[in-house]
Design a protein that fits this description.
The protein is an alpha/beta fold. Helix content is about 45%, strand content about 15%. The longest helix has 17 residues.
């Protein structure tokens, strides 16, 4: 376990992504995955109020509902750390104060709980004064509806502005950051966000940790991608340089007798400030390789080879 930033929240060093729940995994499969994750030592579940509104027939909040049904039926809420997000639910778009309050209450109802462990601003909302958003988050924390504040998809400048405003007003500082960060998407985080993270000791919880499946090794050509549920997202990483990273992952995984995702996630977990990469499992069979990353340690040479290959990717 590891502490999430400057908070007292202890998390397993692999967060289970809930974006598949109600999308590529039905409720029964999702609950089986959650059971297996908990049995494997996990306690950190990531979701958002907008998951999975993009699926035909869904309206948003399906993932939270499945998680809430699971914790309620298993009576394990006290053992689980839940992170969810606001700004993308079709009925609660943006970060105006009234919207933040309403969205939080709706998430609490779907999650069947009276508190959210980490509540993230999912995407920056430049149409709303940042101070208004921060004040709304702080009010939720004061009311006991959330334990800690997090931000996702913020620029370095806006993240620093959030911290500056919260410091000046005496509001709770964010403890967690969710950036897009992985072996084939490094430069934006490492050159801009990482210095802010280091200066304020934020816990980093990277999403797309496996690059929408690209870093699992199952997509080696555009033919492999055709018809996949994540075809469009994974295709964004397809390049000669990206495939070279996969080859290095494959070589290390073969030599160490582990799965490719284990190696990719272990690299990310070893990066400065990273508390827990987020990875999703559509089925229980995909979970062991993810869980193994929490304890798998790369050698210095293996890290160097991955760093060298990934540095050639324009991402």
């Amino acid at each position: 376990m590891t502490l999430l930033g400057t908070s007292s929240i202890d998390v397993f060093p692999l967060a289970l992504g809930g974006n598949t729940f109600g999308w590529t995994s039905d409720e029964a499969t999702s609950q089986t995955v959650l059971d297996a994750y908990l049995a494997g030592g996990g306690n950190f579940i990531d979701t958002a109020d907008g998951y999975s509104a993009w699926v035909p027939g869904n309206s948003g909040g399906e993932s939270e509902t499945i998680i809430g049904n699971w914790t309620s039926s298993r009576r394990n809420r006290a053992d689980i750390v839940i992170g969810t997000k606001v700004s993308q639910h079709p009925a609660f778009r943006g970060l105006a104060a009234a919207n933040v309050r309403g969205a939080a209450d709706a998430s609490l109802q779907r999650l069947r709980t009276d508190y959210i462990d980490v509540y993230y601003a999912h995407f920056d909302d430049p149409g709303v004064p940042l101070e208004e958003t921060i004040e709304a988050f702080d009010a939720l924390r004061t009311a006991g509806k959330i334990r800690e504040v997090g931000v996702s998809n913020y620029s370095p400048e806006r993240l620093q502005e959030w911290i500056d405003i919260a410091t000046r007003r005496g509001f709770a500082l964010p403890v967690a950051l969710q950036p897009h960060y992985n072996l084939v998407k490094r430069s934006e985080y490492e050159t801009g966000l990482a210095p802010v993270v280091a200066a304020h000791q934020l816990g980093v919880v990277p999403y797309f940790a496996l690059a929408s499946g690209f870093l699992t090794g199952k997509y080696r050509s555009e033919v492999d991608l055709r018809g996949a549920s994540r075809e469009q997202m994974a295709n964004a990483y397809m390049s000669a340089e990206g495939l070279a990273v996969v080859e290095v992952l494959d070589r290390i995984a073969t030599a160490r007798e582990v799965a490719i995702p284990t190696v990719a996630l272990a690299w990310l977990r070893s990066r400065p400030g990273v508390a827990a990469p987020i990875a999703s499992a559509r089925t229980v069979e995909q979970l062991p390789a993810l869980l193994a990353s929490a304890t798998f340690e790369l050698t210095e040479l293996e890290r160097s080879d991955l760093n060298e290959a990934s540095a050639r990717v324009n991402g």
